[in-house]
Amino acid sequence: MKRLFAAGPIWPLVAVFIVAIWAAGVSLTGVSRALLPSPVLVADAMRELIDDGVLAKHVRVSVVRLVWGFALSTALALIVAFAFARVALLRRIVEPPLEFLRQIPPLAMIPLLILWLGIGEAQKIGIITLACFFPIFLGTTGGIAQCDPKLIEVGRVSGLSETEILRRIVLPSALPSVVIGLRIALGQGWRALVGAELVASSAGLGYMIEDAQNLARTDIVVVGVIVIGTLGLATDWLFRRAIAAAWPWVRVEHGAETHA
Amino acid sequence: MLECRGVSKTYRLKDRAVAALREFDLALPPGSFTVLVGPSGCGKTTALRLLAGLETPTGGTIARSAGDTRVGYVFQEPRLMPWLSVARNVGFALEGRMAKPEIAKRVADILDVIGLHDFAQARPDQLSGGMASRAGLARALVTKPELLLLDEPFAALDAMTRRRLQSELVTLWQCFRPTIVFVTHDIEEAVLLGDEIFLMENGLIAERFANPILRPRDPTDPEIVRLRRAIIAGFEAGEARKTRTPKESTQ
Ligand SMILES: Nc1ncnc2c1ncn2[C@@H]1O[C@H](COP(=O)(O)OP(=O)(O)O)[C@@H](O)[C@H]1O
Ligand SMILES: [Mg+2]
What we know:
Radius of gyration of chain A: 22 Å
CATH architecture of the largest domain in chain B: 3-Layer(aba) Sandwich
Number of domains of chain B: 2
Helix content of chain B: 25-40%
CATH topology of the largest domain in chain B: Rossmann fold
Number of strands of chain B: 9
Oligomer: heterodimer
Distance between the termini of chain A: 18 Å
CATH superfamily of the largest domain in chain B: P-loop containing nucleotide triphosphate hydrolases
Structural class of chain B: alpha/beta
Bound molecules: adenosine-5'-diphosphate, magnesium ion
Number of helices of chain A: 11
């Protein structure tokens, strides 16, 4: 994987190849445009959606939701993970219910969240927060657990307090694993968001797809799919760049986000 | 004054107990330079860890005179934080304790002494083994500790750098007069540095040697050579005891 991307110019070729097969397949089989529209039709639909600003609106709505949910769950997960590291009793009390909650797919919580939070932004952000929390939380607790006790001893003999040891030694050494958690969370959050927008929503990329399906506009559905995939790749790429700039010692592998 | 009386440390493993240190008596007057020398596994690191408060003794007492003693500890491995530059590793214990410009000045000074000036902004993984252990030494010295505990700090260095840093250490000691406990397995190093030398063997202090020879000390000085011989003889006697004891106990 890594070498493929490092070689650079290969992936545009792959994209062109896939589009070519798609176009050839559509024209050779004569499949109806309601089942699979040709690339040209999809491009037309995309231009239309861009021109009248509809796509931008849906993208903005989805991205804003994602940013809020991601930020909220990052803050929560870091706080809970470090509180667990500091207070063992807290961990013993809170961990079992958390573990229970972790088993439940966020989308299965949609009915309850609709009851509790309505069908507005709070519910969407709630779903994203649920989806993002556990990858970040597990990444952070894992990173904390793997912190080298020899480095912690350096803090002890330097006269650092427990809190300083957490902040100045445990947190930075847990960072690579926190970053993996953040990247997985970003992907999960994106997925959960689109899922939530499919169910009960009046804006966002998921809603755009759902609405297009009701109108039998398969071309718009395909546009939605392409935009979602591209935005996912783009956010992950941006994220990796940001990490590399902020914490150069953290190695960020391409494609660390493996599990869905 | 730091005093250990009858200190022992036993590590419990699954199936057995390891007596790493036994009946350890040590009195360290302020400003003294003490060396613990002995083969690997004899309990030197354990003794230092107890003095630093990183371990609690299983028996005996460690008494410290009142007051907040600044401790500098040079670990056997460099133990640098991989995410910090060499300069920030060296200033690690000072951060948040004093103003940034003062930290920068202290760090720069100590990096000069230790010969790492050009690597202040390097990351630890860009250092050689010897350079990394010098950075670990600088990190302990930069706080101007009152108690300085060094665990084979020069073991990873080439002979020439080791000679230079040995005399730098003595100079620093003469300037600031910290209480030093220096651990080594190198008898020549022990004799060149220490005023009191404890030969350790199997978790016990086997023999104590006073070393009144004036500084600067020359390894070829007849008195130094004589003291080295005495310590080697003590060590060999210990080895002989060790090989004899099991046989006697089976008879
Ligand atoms: N954390 C530990 N757990 C179990 N045994 C230990 C531990 N630390 C040291 N020991 C044992 O104690 C003895 C003395 O170790 P150490 O003080 O490291 O020796 P030295 O530094 O002189 O080489 C050794 O037998 C070692 O295996
Ligand atoms: Mg040792």
